[in-house]
Design brief:
By secondary structure, the protein is α/β, with parallel strands linked by helices. It is built from 7 helices and 10 strands. The chain has a domain of 65 residues. A hairpin with a 2-residue loop joins strand 4 and strand 5. The structure holds adenosine-5'-triphosphate. Its main location: membrane.
């Protein structure tokens, strides 16, 4: 069994958490200690905000969970896998189960909306027949059925972020990691993206959102993890935004 850590009794259900960090620290090469001795658990089905000032280590946390960067010390488990024991070749398989959305969308510029989403399905070698069903269905959920043939540059920022979200979700990930998904959006589009994230969460995907958006965090009353200078300073159920931007 991959879950060798002794934490089960701390949970009211038997299911192991989807993310576990145990005393995780990360120092970058030039000596910046981006993350300092963080321990946390996120259970399947949770919706969690990670907030904190610029440079407090939020993106580093996300990168650690994706095994994009390695911890200097500590242990990380994602979806039952001990990332420290995961070989390089197993990382793509880990990421298949994780949807990722970034502030800058990261769409393929020369591919239309349909192709951008279909690409995620091709990577995991979905049969063409499934792709032809899944991609339009996913784009309909994010409200982009009439934009299948548009290129990213022909879309608004909010629409581009919805494409990115469709791409992150089309493979039915158990976990969605969103790093400032509303960072480039106006308030109306930001709320639309958050409503979609909440919807996805209701369908069973665990959602982790890094954000600077105080209004949204305060209004949504979710679990809020606050970082300050690499330290986890607060972790509250139905929390609010503690620090100034
Ligand atoms: N590749 C890197 N090499 C060296 N230092 C880095 C690297 N990436 C991040 N850092 C440093 O680590 C610290 C935490 O950065 P991180 O990007 O995790 O913060 P953040 O909370 O996501 O910030 P922001 O809200 O501005 O995106 C910062 O001091 C940053 O300069």
């Amino acid at each position: 069994m991959a879950y060798s850590y002794n934490i089960r009794n701390e949970f009211i259900d038997d299911e192991p958490p989807i993310i576990v960090l145990e005393n995780v620290s990360k120092s970058y090469q030039k000596g910046t200690e981006a993350v300092k001795n963080i321990s946390l658990k996120i259970r399947k089905g949770e919706f969690v905000f990670i907030v904190g000032n610029s440079g407090s280590g939020k993106s580093t946390l996300i990168k650690l969970m994706l095994k994009e960067v390695e911890p200097s010390s500590g242990k990380i488990y994602v979806n039952g896998k001990d990332l420290g024991r995961l070989r390089r070749g197993q990382v793509p398989k880990l990421r298949r189960n994780i949807g990722v959305v970034f502030q800058d969308f990261r769409l393929l510029k020369d591919r239309n909306v349909y192709e951008n989403v279909a690409f995620a399905q091709r990577v995991i070698e979905k049969p063409l027949k499934s792709i032809r069903e899944n991609v339009p269905a996913m784009l309909s959920i994010v409200g982009l059925s009439d934009k299948l043939n548009s290129l990213p540059r022909e879309l608004s920022g909010g629409e581009q972020q919805r494409v990115a979200l469709a791409r992150a979700l089309v493979n039915n990930p158990v976990l969605l990691l969103a790093d400032e998904p509303t960072g480039n959006l106006d308030p109306k589009n930001s709320w639309e993206i958050m409503a979609l994230l909440e919807e996805v969460n209701k369908r069973g995907t665990t959602v982790l959102v890094v954000t600077h958006n105080r209004e949204i965090v305060d209004a949504m009353q979710k679990r809020v993890i606050t970082m300050n200078k690499g330290i986890l300073v607060s972790d509250e159920q139905k929390g609010g935004y503690l620090y100034e931007n």
